[in-house]
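Late entry, written up from scratch paper. The run itself happened at the end of the previous shift, but nothing got recorded in the book at the time, so transcribing now.
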Amino acid sequence: MRKWFIVTVAMLAVAGLILAAGPALAKKKPIKIGAFFAMSGPAAFIGAPTKLVAEMVVAEINKAGGINGRPIVLIIGDTEGKPPKAVSIAKKFIHQDKVVAVIGPTRTGTGMAVKKLFEQAKIPVFMTVGGDPVIMKIRGVGYTWIFKSPQRSSTAISVLMAYLKRHKISKIGVITANDGFGRDGKRWLTKLAPKFGITIVAAETFGARDVDMKPQLTKIKAKNPQAIVCWTIGPAGSIVSKNVAQLGIKGPLFQCHGLPDPKYIMLAGKAANGNLMPATKLLVADQLPAGDPQKPVILKFIKLYKKYGYEKKFPINAHSAYAWDAIMIVAMALKKAGTDAAKLRSAIENTKNYVGVSGTYNLSPTDHNGLGIDSMVILKIVGGKWKLVK
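Output as recorded:
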């Protein structure tokens, strides 16, 4: 009885979404897209608003006529940020829902857990994870059906390293989370630092749920770095910021591109002032030069986000637009290629010059992200607000 009830509710929800798109679309066969995010658990501060943005962009696409007259319907799942849960939902998308494409998940670890499944099923997936491994070769094996909308860690670190070099910072300490995203950051920091003439004088790790990183930071402080780079997402980043202040470490603290978020400033408090980080342009749209091609796109997104009433519960942060860009690219590919899996994958892979909220995307067979260093800026927290710096 319970299973019948859940299925019935799901069917009614789908029907409601189609009817909301308009009577013409309601008569057409919907295009089903799977969407799974960490809507609960430690990454819910990212996953919950990502789900809302996914619904927002689909609603806007359907209002404009859908995909060649057919409505998009999202089949939504909550990974809870857990790899086993993500695997279970992925199998449902593949075998039960028969989706034509998938958006998500939220975390690098859950993305790694499901990518082989989607690769074998030959379903295009546009992930919203931060880490590079989801689109990298593993032991020489490539993944041709997986894409991702957030900037690669290597791109963010290149932007950060260029800033350090410009400001004559040549010795840094590194502190990273021991999860998939943190390990990815540490790998790229280690690899790219020498190319910019930068030496890592100390490197420490911590658990993503640790509540005190002073022991690791004390070891880093003893090596006298000119700056510290932290690579993590969530509350741990604000704890590192407060610990740096408590230890009286004077050099600047740089966070990763996953932490530009009003919640970070709230949690870190006064310690956040002076912190820097690579980021998309979303949080400083009003500070962008008039000639930036992204500026009108970002301002339109912000206006729409507020119109839907999301800003009060989930203030805009670095992650807000990743689902928007992913779904928009998939929608453009669907309009061009239809729902045939191979043709759809190829159309996604050949996306060129799409000016999105997160950057201008140019995908290719060798780059399933498509964003360059021009999509990112360095932000500094000054007086509790975001400032664009050079």
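Residues 1-14 have pLDDT under 50 and may be disordered.
(Scratch paper discarded after transcription.)
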